[in-house]
Amino acid sequence: MRTTQKRNTWFTYALVIAAFAITQGFVQSGNITSTLKGQLVPICAYVVMAVSLNLTVGVLGELSLGHAGFMSVGAFSGVVACMSLADAIPSEPIRLVVGIVIGAVCAGLAGVLVGIPVLRLNGDYLAIVTLAFGEIIKNLINCLSVGVDARGLHFSFLSNASALNLGEGGKIIINGPMGISGIPKLSTFTAGFILILVTLFIVMNLVNSRAGRAIMALRDNRIAAESVGIPITKYKLMAFVTSAALAGAAGTLYALNFSTIVASKFNFNTSILILVYVVLGGLGNIWGSVVAATVLTILPEMLRGFNDYRMLLYAIVLILVMLATNNVRIRNTFHTLRGRFKKTSKEGASDEQ
Amino acid sequence: MSSNTRLVPVPATNFIPERDIDKQPILEARNLGIDFGGLTAVDAFNFAVSPTEIAGLIGPNGAGKTTIFNLLSKVYRPTRGTILLEGRDTLDMTTVQANRAGIARTFQNIRLFNNLTVEDNIKLGLHNHIKYGMISGILRLPNYWTEEKAARERVPELLNIFNMEFMSQYRAGALPYGAQRRLEIVRALATGPKVLLLDEPAAGMNPSETAELMENIVKVRDTFQIAIILIEHDMNLVMGICEGICVLNFGKVIAKGTPEEIQNNPAVIEAYLGKQKEVGSNAESN
Question: Is the pTM of this model over 0.90?
Answer without folding.
Answer: no
